[in-house]
Automatic annotation (TrEMBL):
This is GTP-binding protein RAB5. It is found in: Cell membrane. It comes from Lentinula lateritia. Keywords: Cell membrane, GTP-binding, Lipoprotein, Membrane, Nucleotide-binding, Prenylation, Protein transport, Transport. SUPFAM superfamilies: P-loop containing nucleoside triphosphate hydrolases. Residues 171-207 are annotated as: Disordered. Pfam families: Ras.
Length: 207
């Protein structure tokens, strides 16, 4: 019998790094060149089926990146099982913001949270300001997953969410997790780039 698990996932990052576009690509396989800024947070769901037919349902909170909404963020990452912290590879300042979010998660989120650092807009590699080496080194130091994605082309998007699903603790009895929306315990962080978490590519992504 296939097992089903449910986990709360939050997206964090500066405004305009492409968080909403990333989620739209993952959930609906769509991309919109002109997306209005998220107000507060948006809620979506999507499931991932792993090789062993285990089904992982993500309850996704896509938070607003604008500074005026920052105080609301703890409401969304509280009890989150996993977080995707997004930066824009063409904006070095967005990686600094991502570092701030990761520090905040490490201080205040559940100690078992799985964190993925995601460099979006890999299709704009000609305008790159954040090197793969810099981001990967930081991720390794902090024990994070890391990948580059393109919400515009879809490059690496499903891979990063699938990699997160594989890193979540699925060993407890299904009753302990199914429909729970949160996982009690599990590994503090993930194993990094040792899996195809989105081929660290230089391929297309806009937002």
């Amino acid at each position: 019998m296939s097992k089903q698990f449910q986990f709360k996932l939050v997206l964090l990052g500066e405004s305009a790094v492409g968080k909403s576009s990333l989620v739209l690509r993952f959930v609906k396989d769509q991309f919109d060149d002109y997306r209005e800024s998220t107000i507060g947070a948006a809620f979506l769901t999507q499931t991932v089926t792993l090789e062993d037919q285990t089904t992982v349902k993500f309850e996704i909170w896509d938070t607003a990146g604008q500074e005026r909404y920052k105080s609301l963020a703890p409401m969304y990452y509280r009890n989150a099982n996993c977080a995707v912290v997004v930066y824009d590879i063409t904006q070095s300042a967005s990686l600094e913001k991502a570092r701030n979010w990761i520090r905040e998660l490490q201080r205040q989120a559940d100690p078992s949270i799985v964190i993925a650092l995601c460099g979006n807009k890999s299709d704009l590699s000609a305008r790159r300001q954040v090197s793969e080496e810099e981001a990967k080194k930081y991720a390794e130091e902090e024990g994070l997953m890391w990948a580059e994605t393109s919400a515009k082309t879809g490059e690496g998007v499903s891979e990063i969410f699938t990699a997160i699903a594989k890193k979540l603790p699925l060993t407890a009895p299904p009753s302990a997790r199914t429909g729970a929306g949160r996982a009690p315990t599990g590994p503090k962080s993930v194993d990094l780039n040792k899996q195809p978490a989105g081929q660290n590519s230089n391929e297309p992504c806009n937002c």
